[in-house]
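The instructor's notes for this session suggest beginning with a concrete chain rather than abstract definitions. Hand out the sequence below and ask the class to guess, before any prediction is shown, which regions might be ordered.
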Amino acid sequence: MLSPTLPPVPPVPPWFPGHEPIGEGEALWTAWSFDPEFLLPVGFAVFFYLRGLRRWEHRSHEHPPWRTALYLTGIAVLVLSFQSPIDRIAQHHFSMHMAQHLLTMTVAVPLILLGAPTTPSLRGMPRWLRLGVVARLAKRPAVRTAYGVVTHPVIAIALPAVVLWLWHLAPGWYDRAVEDDLIHDLQHMSFVAVAVLFWWNVIDPKPLRARVPHIPRILYILGATIPAQFLGAMLTFAPEPLYETYVAATPIYGLDPLQDQQLGGLLMWIPGGLLYLLAAGVVFAVWAQQSERRQRALEAAQDAERLGEAARATR
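After discussion, reveal the predicted structure:
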């Protein structure tokens, strides 16, 4: 059971910490953050999306209400990950930091992409931004080439693995991200960016389409789990804590630094792996449904052709 108050917090380092620690006597349920640098861009993204839907009268492709619901749910999960007590508890516990990253990369990002935000967001932007900035950038050959490179399936699998392993295993990287606000923001932005690249090839971000067909898409998902699974296992079975920041942190729960690290590794290893398996199952179900629909359409066309031939034969 969570304790309503905490012991005194060690002195804050001379730079701004990545997460604001929970203060002495502060109840956990009140430990929400209010970061305008995060909330303003997210607020504008939601505003453009909803405004674009309202303006999109003659729709070139279907956009059912469930997509809007998933988009808003993904945004809500993103806000909860970075503004709720999860964020500040992550200053005290590595496992909570891991839970935060898991929610961001495997829940919030895919839900947002399932909301098919491209067309609504573009339609909701001011004309100067849509035509003067986005359209001009999209027309540049260098931008098109970069898009083709980063969305290539091999790159979209490799980049998340490289980013995860560097932040967790490169000497001093993770500690500095927890201790320094600017580096911590860079870490989170890199996690979100590579998650978008990965899920882009799993979820067709209408009106754009993923570059991987449905059956290879399952192998793509399963292949992406391997580096994260190895990293989770390494964190779980490490003989000693890897991050000095969490050795020195004041714990909230009854976990020593090694137990906390093991819990974080297990979160990456087991729930993270299960979420990827769930995604692979959903992709297979979508493929099966589409295959059945195509088969029915083919059979209906064949039946219509046979009826036409029979009608012509009786004349």
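Then share the key points. Confidence is low (pLDDT under 50) at residues 1-16. The longest helix spans residues 257-313.
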